[in-house]
Amino acid sequence: MSIIKTDPLVSLKEFTAARIAIGRVGNSIPLKQSLEFNLAHAHARDAVYSELDIEGLSDSLKVFSLPILHLHSNALTRHKYLKRPDHGRQLNQDSADQRIQPWL
What is the pTM of this model? Predict the structure, then answer.
């Protein structure tokens, strides 16, 4: 009689983007999953170090005829943000003082 073992985590994959139940080959993860992780890591690195085209984004958003606020965080530079991400989650005082003017 053959016993088929199923991984109980496989059913959880539909509820999360986390890398669970990816299998293994010996002590390592399968090559496909390893390459997918490396690609995702490269995309994340690119996202952190790429420049945001603020003017292009602002121009694209003008079609909605809504106010556009340019806000800044307490992290003055990208280097400081990478060292202190908590500063990147806080508005600097000038940005916090901005108020949305009614447009109607």
Answer: 0.56
